[in-house]
Amino acid sequence: MSVFVWIETFEGRALSSSWEALGAARIIAEAQATDIVALVFGENAQSIAKATGQYGAARAIVCDSEVLRQYRLESYAALLGDLVAKHRPSAVVAVASNRGRELLASAAVDSGSGLISDVIDLRLEEGRIIGVRPTYAGKVLMEMTANTATTFVTIRGRAFAPAATTAGAAPELEEAKTVDVADAIATEIESFASELGTVSLTDAAIIVSGGRGMANNPKSPPDGISGDEAKIWKAKDGYENTLRPLADALGAAVGASRAAVDAGYIAYDHQVGQTGKVVNPDLYIACGISGAIQHQAGMRGSKIIVAINKDAEAPIFKLARYGIVGDLYDVVPALTAALRQVLTN
Questions:
Q1: H/E element holding 235?
Q2: What are φ and ψ of residue 146, in 5° steps?
Q3: Is residue 305 scored above 90 in pLDDT?
Q4: How far apart are CA 119 and CA 99, in angstroms?
Q5: What CA–CA distance (Å, rounded) separates 236 from 266?
Q6: How far apart are CA 152 and CA 140, in angstroms?
Q7: How far apart, in whole angstroms, are the C-alpha atoms of residue 144 and residue 116?
Q8: Cβ 92 vs Cβ 84: under 8 Å
């Protein structure tokens, strides 16, 4: 009755969030007095599997078949379901990334097992795994459990600490064979386009976000730009020349509210909220964001929240640990300059 952990990889490298999944799995494994088995599929699987021993995996099951070189749900879910049927683990754990969500959900259905998703805390009671997850925009915590022999668990990114590293630890390796589902594979991956020079929102320890207030930029747009186009120009300039310098000084990612995205100020992949990305950084700096419930649902798990807003009654201040009432275009440049001076010294 081992605990399985799916190690998510990309281009032959393990995603750092997978070490968090090993940390969460340790809670279950220690309570059940069992071991942790890492599952590594695809390119460079052998090498990645060896590294999992440093993060608590006693064993690793690998499969580096060419069919698994690129992640596709059909082939990965078939292999995971087959391994679950053969080994009957007490739990299968993965980070609730886009791939982790769909892979574990599919394998859980195929194996007739229960799934508890997007959890931020884990414990065991009378042998059952209890997962805690936020609901109602994070205002309520609900507990979930499953009454099946194997429980599939997805964890929210940055909710669990990575397992402590143990230098030199090497897991016992076992090779698995792929499950032939060629006829069921509906997609073919030709290539990936990487965006360089940015920090992933879901992985970021610090996030600097802008909202509707980004359009209050005092700079004047070029001649011929007016109305809504002027607001968009002002906001885009604010993200690039006011928020981006602060994010760069802190090594942070740049986020946005839904209002800013809907208004065309910034691309959707920066959106934080119920219909965007759910984040759990150590520090979240909200600039010109009122704090609508939809936005709070995506960031209220942040360890420290700093709010900068001209409206002293903005809902975001009720959530923030530190609040600055003022114009973000006055506050943020001053904050950036002060941080650069401190960090330089």
A1: helix 227-238
A2: -135, 145
A3: yes
A4: 16
A5: 7
A6: 22
A7: 6
A8: yes
CATH fold, domain 206-344, is: Rossmann fold (3.40.50)
Which residues 6+ apart lie within 8 Å of 262 measured at CB? none
The two structure tokens encoding residue 31: 């309570």
59-63 and 36-41 as β-strands: parallel, antiparallel, unpaired?
parallel
Distances (CA, A) of 145 to 123, 153, 192: 10, 10, 37
* Structure confidence by residue, pLDDT tens digits, 156-213: 999 999 977 777 778 999 999 988 877 777 777 777 776 655 678 988 999 999 999 9
Per-residue tokens: 6: 């799916």
Beta strand ranges found along 7-120 (DSSP E): 9-10, 13-14, 36-41, 59-63, 91-95, 114-119
Query: Within a 13 Å sphere around the CA of 83, how many CA atoms are in the beta-carbon half?
Result: 31
Contact 235, 265 (CB under 8 A): yes
Distance between CA 216 and CA 235 in Å, rounded?
Answer: 7
Query: How many of the other CB atoms lie within 10 Å of CB of 118?
Result: 18
CATH number for the domain formed by residue range(s) 3-184: 3.40.50.620
Say how far apart CA 233 and CA 215 lie, in whole Å.
Answer: 8
Helices (H) and strands (E) in the chain, counts: 10, 17
Q: Which two tokens stand for residue 201?
A: 């929102």
Specify the residue for token string 């064979």.
177
264/266 Cα distance (integer angstroms): 6
What residue ranges of the chain are covered by domains with CATH 3.40.50.1220?
206-344
Residue 342: which H helix or E strand, with range? helix 328-344
CA distance 257 to 112: 38
Among residues 111, 276, 310, 308, the alpha carbon closest in space to that of 208 is found at 308
Say how far residue 176 (Cα) sits from the centre of its chain.
Answer: 28
CA gap 95, 100 in Å, rounded: 6
Q: Mind listing the pLDDT tens digit for each residue in 21-72?
A: 999 999 999 999 999 999 999 999 999 999 999 999 999 999 999 889 999 9
Residues of the chain with CATH 3.40.50.620: 3-184
User: CA quadruple 49, 50, 51, 53: dihedral positive or negative?
Assistant: positive
The whole model's pTM is what? 0.88
